[in-house]
Amino acid sequence: MIKKEMIAMLLAGGQGSRLGVLTSKVAKPAVAFGGKYRIIDFPLSNCINSGVDTVGVLTQYQPLRLNTHIGIGIPWDLDRNVGGVTVLPPYEKSENSEWYTGTANAIYQNIDYMDSFNPDYILILSGDHIYKMDYEVMLDFHKQNNSECTIAVMPVPMEEAKRFGIMITDENKKITDFEEKPANPRSNLASMGIYIFNWKTLKEALIAKADQPNLDFGKHVIPYCHAKGAPMYAYEFNGYWKDVGTLNSYWEANMELIDIVPEFNLYEEYWKIYTKAEALPPQYVSSEGVIERSIIGEGTEIYGQVYNSVIGCGITIGKGTVVRDSIIMNNTEIGDGCELNKAIVAENVVIGNRVKLGVGEEAENDTAPHIYNHGIVTVGEKSVIPDDVQVGKNSVVFGVTTAQDYEDGALGSGKTLIKAGDEQ
Amino acid sequence: MRAIGIILAGGNSHRMKELSKKRAIGAMPIAGSYRSIDFALSNMSNSHIQKVGVLTQYNARSLNEHLSSSKWWDFGRKQGGLFVFTPTITADNGFWFRGTADAIYQNISFLKNSHEPYVVITSSDCIYKMDYNKVLEYHIEKKADITVVCKDIPEGENVERYGTIKMNEESRIEEFEEKPIVAKSNTISCGIYVIRRRLLIELIERCAMEDRYDFVKDILIRYKNQKRIFGYKIKDYWKNIASVEDYFNTNMDFLKPEIRNYFFRQYPDIHSKVDDLPPAKYNVGAKVSNSLISSGCIVNGTVEDSVIFKKSFIGNNCYIKNSIILNDVYIGDNCHIENCIVESRDTIRANSFHKGEDGIKVVIEKNERYVI
What we know:
The structure holds two protein chains of two kinds.
Chain A: E1 6-11, E2 32-33, E3 37-38, H1 41-49, E4 54-58, H2 64-70, E5 84-88, H3 103-108, H4 111-115, E6 121-126, E7 129-131, H5 135-144, E8 149-155, E9 165-169, E10 175-180, E11 189-198, H6 199-208, H7 217-227, E12 232-236, E13 241-243, H8 247-256, E14 283-285, E15 290-292, E16 294-296, E17 301-302, E18 305-307, E19 310-311, E20 316-317, E21 322-324, E22 327-328, E23 333-334, E24 339-341, E25 343-345, E26 350-351, E27 356-357, E28 377-379, E29 384-385, E30 390-391, E31 396-398, E32 410-411, E33 416-418
Parallel strand pairs in A: 1-4, 1-6, 4-5, 8-12, 14-17, 15-18, 16-19, 17-20, 18-21, 19-22, 20-23, 21-24, 22-25, 23-26, 24-27, 25-28, 26-29, 27-30, 28-31, 30-32, 31-33
Antiparallel strand pairs in A: 2-3, 6-11, 7-13, 8-11, 9-10, 9-11
Chain B: E1 3-9, E2 29-30, E3 34-35, H1 36-46, E4 51-56, H2 61-66, E5 81-85, H3 100-106, H4 108-112, E6 118-123, E7 126-128, H5 132-141, E8 146-152, E9 163-167, E10 173-178, E11 187-196, H6 197-209, H7 215-221, E12 229-234, E13 238-240, H8 244-253, H9 257-265, E14 280-282, E15 287-289, E16 291-293, E17 298-299, E18 302-304, E19 307-308, E20 313-314, E21 319-321, E22 324-325, E23 330-331, E24 336-338, E25 340-342, E26 347-348, E27 353-355, E28 361-363
Helix pairs in contact in B: 3-6
């Protein structure tokens, strides 16, 4: 008989639209992070390090990169005879076929998958946070308290509490009430979007609320369980946890990795983060190369200067090029004599010679100022930028661009240049 | 592919000096991220050879660890796979492998139980990229009994470590000398052979009956007039690493862009065991020039013209020049290391000075490492 005490369900179907062009072709969990990783590596590595060897990954938006990355789970030791990692896309049914319309709806549509493992507990995770957490300790807490639903929370500054789902607890950490983005928060314990449910409780709730449109954990399932009087507890987590939902928080989380002893340390022996290695060779630094306060991935060749940056794998940075405060993802090529300031350059981009990114006065983005801000220049994947052009701050370039797209050889600050249509 | 592979990884070389104390030559770290046997294994895998036997004997622990899983080279298959053979005592045999032919003889069932018509034999201490299918095609076209891959090396270079070959105009080998004192030719054998499986079994069994144990001496040289032995000349990069100087120079070759491009950026790739190390980190004060840095390294000092292997730590104000730092080395602050090979897992105390004066110095320092 097949039996797993706890299995994980990882929600990886969202677009993450606040990452702008970075997620226009890939799901957010597949976005590169920290030189050689992708965001989903963190929850997947946490799972295997916590002894959770059965993970269902729910995909929907642009899953190709994610599917290729996960494969059969070899990098995380999740290739198992029983269990392991399974990618769960939405599928057609004899009636009521639908996309995943909400976080809990996605789980609801996969009741059969979960049932096949006879689990006692279900761990719900999302694929867009950077943290190291032992889910086994959380499960112990769940069991000790005879909880039916345990929500991981972390204390946040009171003034920021209104951006989160807030849990109000008694002295035993039992949840008495909760509020979604309250104007006047009564507690500073923010939900991290990590839940452990008793399978019986969850299954009952999912079936009872099945007809709710856009069935969501925070909005529907948790309130339903609470109303039914199920004992619910808050598990307080005090380690590093970062939501990388916006370009600025994504940029900040990357930059935190380059501190001398970073708060989130990838160099510890304990609790390794695993990823599918895309390149093996060492990196080469030429005699003109200068690198300071940066991390650099495998197979990258540096002929220019790199300061305060996170550089991925298989990248070439040309002679005389100066890269500052930037994030450059795998297999991008940057020509000679360029200047990059606070740029996020996605994968497989080609940047010509003498290109300047992130120069000039700051100006608000003209199309989506809530996405492109903090002076960051964003270049989408597989973009091409021709020789001798300048791009200002808070601007976006996406697609194969030519010199004609840049008026007087420049794209001003706050401008958006997205070439529609699929590239070849 | 219609061949199985055999990788001879049993030997030791006193020319490797202290470096071979720790490991078989096949497990020597190469080019920052690889082990030398990766090249032979990747060539096999990339040539679609599905079944490979590795014969090990000398100090095989490090090598066995590296080969603990066959999936990195794509040998984790139901058909074929990676087989590691170490000497065992059986009812009929209580000897170590007494030579290359004996090593094959003691595992002859591996050959007998296969059904592929050909065998590709190679050694684990050579750095090269090769499609064995090309050699096999040539072998069939020449109607050869044995094909030996060979290479011309520049006139005047020392060949006394190699077997030298003289071929006639149709490439048939007329003379084969093992480790000659005075070389008659500058064509050397690369230690890569193609032979029909049944013929190999026959020759190996005959060898064993006559108490002969060496593949080169007792098969290639002994049968060179009787069997059709042909040479297949290559022009591509091929280096043997079985001496400290050659090992050092081969690693330094990877600082040349054309060599890196050939091995790392052109199809097919060389595969190796994946270590799950974070990207290399450069702190304030790091000055790196013309060097290879591998993943998991943390650099605080100056590195020039060197190859730094995985997971090494280089302290503040260090000066590393023209050196090879092997895996997981910790170098304390203010060290000077020049013309050296630093053995893996070493801990070099702060303020140390090491310099190879005439030639390469091998540094082995087993100090205690304080984990912060």
